[in-house]
Amino acid sequence: MQLTRSTRSNHPKRRRGRRIRLPRSRSIWAAAVGWLMVNALVLAVAGDRLPFNWPAITGRTTTERLVDANIGLAEVLFLMALVWLLTRHRRRPDVAARAPERAQALRETLLLLTYGAVGLALGYVLARSLGWHPFGFHLAGTLYGTHEHVAAAEAVTWAVYNLVVYALIPLMYFRRRYTSEQLCLRSSDRTADAVLISVVLLAESAVQFLVLRPDILDLAGRQLLLGLPLAFVLYLAGAVLPAMVFIYAILLPRILRLTGSATATVVLGGLAYAAFHLWDAWTLLGSADEVLLSAAFLILTYFAPGMMKSVLTLRTGNAWVHVWAYHALAPHTLADTRHVVHIFRI
Length: 346
Description:
By secondary structure, the protein is mainly α. The chain has one domain (about 70-345). The longest helix has about 40 residues, at about 220-260. The protein has helices at about 5-10, 10-20, 25-45, 60-85, 100-130, 150-175, 190-210, 220-260, 260-275, 290-315, 320-325, 330-345.
């Protein structure tokens, strides 16, 4: 019997086939393949133990570290799905329209990337000339720890340098040409933003406490009283505001204008965030293998969080949302208060 068009469209096999819909975005496939290749690279180059100085996670094998990284990616993908769920009925802001026309956007993007590279180079030279760890978006000892003590002067100088170079100077330059809304610094729906911040912050905090068990739980009362606000201010100045202004308020809308794809912008935002952690104290550049492994773990560590910050910014049009939902409080204040207590000998 010949099936009619209506019958063919309702055929059980055809209905089941329609439910399997693979992503069509080239950016998603490129990111997925790239992630798998980075995992394969680590397995091919590293031995049983990685060469990095990671006191916070001593005793972990290469395979265990890869498992940790992939679990971290899974958590971020869950949070991104949660963000989509909470914002699916919101009016989507036209972030690309906040950037200038393509030619000007390209010029400004190249200017920003060149300026950022110079900032990283100067941060390296300045810090090394003073006998300190190079200045990147994370203070030495953050996340993985370091056997070398970080002096209070180094921590304060790092925060001031990053705040001035990556936040204040770019903001002063672009604020003369663009409004707060064009720079994604103003909320279009404060209530919805507040709800989103609260839910994501609660979810990330739960992961920090229940799974990662931050060292903050082992601090005494006086250390918590002094260390919590100090860690918040230090990392807000040195890590959070520089990333927010430079990458998510200024660079991200221009990338979206150039690519025309929110997915590609999220991927590139994740790569940009990883690149600005180039001088993390644990990275090694002494050999080709060390360079490859350092680049691999910069991506495995920071690519997913960078994408999460991009998603929050693009879905809300407000770069401040990721600051409070997924950066300043959790993970930095929760994860790094003990490090700050140690630095300032509280």
